[in-house]
Amino acid sequence: MLKIGDLVFLYHSERAKYLITVQEKGSFSTHKGNIPFSELREKDFGDMIKTHMGFPFHILKPTLADLSMKVHRTTTIVYPKDAGLMMLKSFVFPGARVIETGTGSGALTTILATYVQPNGKVYSYEARSEFSDNAKANIKKLGLSDFVEFFVRDVEKQGFDQKDVDAVFIDLPEPWIAVKHAYDALKGGHSLVSLSPNTEQIRKTKAVMELEGFVRIQVLEILERELLVRITGTRPAERMISHTAYLIFAQKGKKPTAE
Amino acid sequence: MLKIGDLVFLYHSERAKYLITVQEKGSFSTHKGNIPFSELREKDFGDMIKTHMGFPFHILKPTLADLSMKVHRTTTIVYPKDAGLMMLKSFVFPGARVIETGTGSGALTTILATYVQPNGKVYSYEARSEFSDNAKANIKKLGLSDFVEFFVRDVEKQGFDQKDVDAVFIDLPEPWIAVKHAYDALKGGHSLVSLSPNTEQIRKTKAVMELEGFVRIQVLEILERELLVRITGTRPAERMISHTAYLIFAQKGKKPTAE
Amino acid sequence: MLKIGDLVFLYHSERAKYLITVQEKGSFSTHKGNIPFSELREKDFGDMIKTHMGFPFHILKPTLADLSMKVHRTTTIVYPKDAGLMMLKSFVFPGARVIETGTGSGALTTILATYVQPNGKVYSYEARSEFSDNAKANIKKLGLSDFVEFFVRDVEKQGFDQKDVDAVFIDLPEPWIAVKHAYDALKGGHSLVSLSPNTEQIRKTKAVMELEGFVRIQVLEILERELLVRITGTRPAERMISHTAYLIFAQKGKKPTAE
Amino acid sequence: MLKIGDLVFLYHSERAKYLITVQEKGSFSTHKGNIPFSELREKDFGDMIKTHMGFPFHILKPTLADLSMKVHRTTTIVYPKDAGLMMLKSFVFPGARVIETGTGSGALTTILATYVQPNGKVYSYEARSEFSDNAKANIKKLGLSDFVEFFVRDVEKQGFDQKDVDAVFIDLPEPWIAVKHAYDALKGGHSLVSLSPNTEQIRKTKAVMELEGFVRIQVLEILERELLVRITGTRPAERMISHTAYLIFAQKGKKPTAE
């Protein structure tokens, strides 16, 4: 049976779906009708519940993609299609210590915190305290606060406090300002990932990475396309998200020398 | 300093890169020259080493994408671009219990085992014992054996042994044969992911998923495109991998009734 | 100087652009203000004109893509990204005789008629007279009536009247019904192009093409992606049209025999 | 019956296909065996012919895409997927007068010359005489010499000889050098198309276009993806050409003034 505080994904259709937290009292309102929390608490994941107007909703477990996409947003966020590859092409695993900057709305923080459990830690740096506060509230709501430490800081001037971390993630308008600090914070041979929407940002960031001693630098873009499988036929969806960001992957090597 | 048994990614360039295990004796041969293991063991991750012909190689930590792509292959494997999204849109996390079938070469097994550490488990089912044996050897080499249990079995006839698992992954030529068993093994509201190259496989699998009580079914395809950032200019690579597989994501709901 | 009846593309921005025909009297209304036709007729292509509210519009020559996209639509239409390749991979040239079915809204008809001038002809077949009438009006407005002959007909039962045509284009919900007739109408070795949104339509059409004696059958899909080049940076547009139709290209060979 | 000089596309399979010119004597050699021209001349388009080893080849009419892709190459060429859209989004039609620079290998020249027949003309400028000579030979072989005038010239310094042309096409490493000349040569409101592989080229060319008075500037990229329709299933091809060039489309408006 669902408990107060449980995160639940209520699903009627792609146009009527909600990520909610189970409450003690009251009811959840949708444009398909209301669902009293008292009724919801008698159900379990996988059950179905009907609104007072009779529309059925499936009670689903929210995926990590759902949780990260549904954080309260004060900024643009990292998309699951991008975040998935970022995890595999870096060193995020149970027990890892990783840095991200900026915190933004905490979408990537959510994903990182989930994977570094139970012994690892995410060190999340953000210049604007209002963003950091919002992200902190998002992470708390998801029960992940034990795995994240937040810092409000001008990273360019002050750098990072940690050494020998397993991975660094940069999501800043001027990513190059954090590259040297990322180098100093990383374990040898470990990875830095930066993402930016524009080719000019990528170009400058890559140049600074090379100067600072990063190697095996690769820039990728991930496109996600939906296939519609219907009674009437199978075909790709008519529209798609074409671009979110370019991803730069790099690993800490030796600084180039004049030799 | 590197130790015997460490996995190392030796990187000279995109055309000369190797995933190796540090040995006690002998040397590693590349077409750029040899690297004696005794010399390598005096280095650390992030250092550089030169072959006897003078070519420099960076000593990098292999990413999870490297490890999964470099398993000894007896079958086609799941690509990182696909596996990344599969992780985020299902329930794979430290402590999770997940099922996959078939084991194949163990590329996905590698990824799953990494993320379910230290208390979770991957139950990996495969019909052909020679595939299972190869994958088991791959997983052992990566030091992940504690987190995987292998089964050689005809899943269609015998199903899975586990109940209440967090996620099921199907990578079979006829994925629909395992859908009912996946339903029985999953926790309510949790997720099933299946991947197939052909639209006909997807269509049939989706139909069976609907009949068996899976909901929120979505079919996606992930395209990875490289951006070349060179002195001479910035542009997408001329060629790309256009298609590996379609991914179906679904969650366990209530079976449809005649009501 | 512009004349009555001239087709003009008025362009203020991507959000305010209009394909209009120059009239004798009155004025053209936009949400940026009005432009009197008497004033417009004192201008020429390439000039600028201001609305009564002071917004500037460029007076541009409409491209063939503009003309085909702006036909009065009663149906979905063929997009320029698809039509362009369809021209090059078939035999549409000044003097060519080509068949299309169905006529639809006349978007493809517009393109075909433009290229077969001054001695060729488009034979355009459509089952529904209201569609044919609308397309005929569209073609007349564009001054291309001399190059198109319209037929209202059930092609499946009655076939085409022409023989030895240079190319046949099929845009029907059940394209396979016209394949045999296309074979009979085409010159040897010449080309048939069919387009359909769904893979099932493509599969069946291709199978019928093979049975009827078409060879060198190829299925392609064209994706058009916009690159935004702005002061703030260069990047692909966030959204794109992902799918309009699959295109099948084939050429008339010898019917397969039991030999 | 085929005649000496006819262009024929011999098609056995995607791996054995040839564009040839019918000769008086001798035979054409393929790795599937030889085909004597005397035998070929007794056939017609759409017929089948067997090599001395018994392999069947279909005798097909080469499409415009075939002709342009098979020109003797001394340079990279414009691909049909790009050229098709370039035709529709500019003013190339029977009777049009159009300029291109550089001539390159004559692939685009072939397409332009085909469509401007019988009264139009392509003015093709190239800095290097050896490229121009090769392209001239290609065009002659295709029987299109009456529709093309070749110029060997440094366009940056000397500009174009024509005025009031319907369209200008630029395919140069430094496209911006020809933009002002294109403006001077074009009819008002008519179109300029430029193509370049790199974003930096696009950025600079677009900036110069804006300064010179071009409007409605749009940058597009065309991706062509093959769908494999086989007995075993339907799926996109595993690999695709990801990038050839970005296309800039613009139309001649009024030069921006200080007003």
Any overview of this molecule?
4 copies of one chain form a homotetramer. With 259 residues, chain A is of the alpha/beta class. The termini of chain A are far apart. In chain A, 26% of the residues lie in helices and 36% in strands. Chain A folds into 2 domains: 7-60, Roll (Vcp-like ATPase, Chain A, domain 2); 65-223 and 239-252, Vaccinia Virus protein VP39 (Rossmann fold), CATH 3.40.50. In chain A, the strands form 3 sheets. In chain A, strands 9-8-7-10-11-15-12-13 form an 8-stranded mixed β-sheet, with helices on both faces. Chains C and D meet through strand 6, helix 2, helix 3, helix 4 and strand 11 of C and strand 6, helix 2, helix 3, helix 4 and strand 11 of D. Strand 14 (239-241) of chain A pairs antiparallel with strand 14 (239-241) of chain C.
